[in-house]
Amino acid sequence: MKKMWKDEFLTWNSSLYDGIREISLPLSTLWSPDIVINEFVDVSRSPDLPYVYVNAAGTIKNYKPMQVVSACSLEAYAFPFDTQNCSLTFSSILHTVEDVDLAFWRSREDIKNNKRLFLDDGEWELLSVPSHPRVLHRETGRFAQIQFNVVIRRRPLLYVVSLLIPSLFLMVIDLASFYLPPNCGTRITFKTSVLVGYTVFKVNMSDKLPGTAVSTPLIGVFFTVCMAFLVLSLSKSILLVKFLHLGEDPVRERLFSGCCVGSALDRGSPGERPQAPRLQAAGDIAGPVLHGKEEEGKGEGPWKVTSARKAPVEKILAELLLISSQLRALDWASRLEVNWLTLSYRLDRLLFWVYVLTLGAYAVTLCSLWVVWSAQ
Predict the structure, then answer these.
(1) pLDDT digits (tens, 9 = 90+) for 293-319
(2) Most exposed of 6, 99, 117, 183 (fewest Cβ within 10 Å)?
(3) Residue 104 phi, psi (nearest 5)
(4) pTM (2 decimals)?
(5) Which residues 6+ apart lie within 8 Å of 247 measured at CB?
(6) What is the DSSP letter of 78?
């Protein structure tokens, strides 16, 4: 920090002192203005330079480097696309503006655009340093102040590569998992692995987010919502698998018997309600035939011969009817399974597009908030 002030009691005629126009004196032997930084929060770590320069006109120059730790209110909402404005206010504590007045020794425009002394640490970029002189009115008098606003902008490339892009990759992988068949059991395993991986990623990157209790960074909301989407995707897959296994109870038959899908399976008249074929035991069909055989066996001889010849034919007919009934039942179950699977695929496609539209709307909203905040 460079301070310059004039002391009327430290002037001399250089021609009377062998042309000496400037000397150095210990600062402790001179009066110096009590200029402090209002945002100062820590002990100065500047090197100790006990001497100042005094010229013949009484101008004192104190070129003392100073490392300042100051308080700055960070706006982390738009992290990592944020711009911060930190102020450094120089003022006198004891002396009013009538005693000590503050002024610039360079033009304000030169100070604003001067970036030569900025130490680039790779993360922050200095935009400008505007300054505003003013007079602060207090009960004890008027005090001069000069406020410098250090406007810096964060370079977001590091955080985009290490935080945003991996998160987007995991979300794309989760979307790609919808191309797995809904009746494939590995879909739930795959989505669970993605969710666990995202949880580990979120825990590891939490240290890189700025910690503040005033406002939540938008990127933190982004990670939380992405995890919520992954949980929603996994829940949807679990419900879809449960929907596919509803055939283990009579739900499928009740559903398809009363809807248009069931009528498409019906080969009878359009007005009839389809009924699932039932398996019929061989004894139920052959029973009346055998009973007829016993009734016929009570007759005379010629009739007995005829009944004996008809018995094998009726037995074969009963077996054929049983096989036909079983085939119809299997055909019904197969058609019902195909139609149920088709309905599940349609439901899965519907849920996929709802998921994509919701995720897209959230991404557009998030990008719009980032753009609006960066433009302010």
Answers:
(1) 444 444 444 444 455 566 787 788 878
(2) 117
(3) -90, 140
(4) 0.63
(5) 336, 337, 340
(6) T
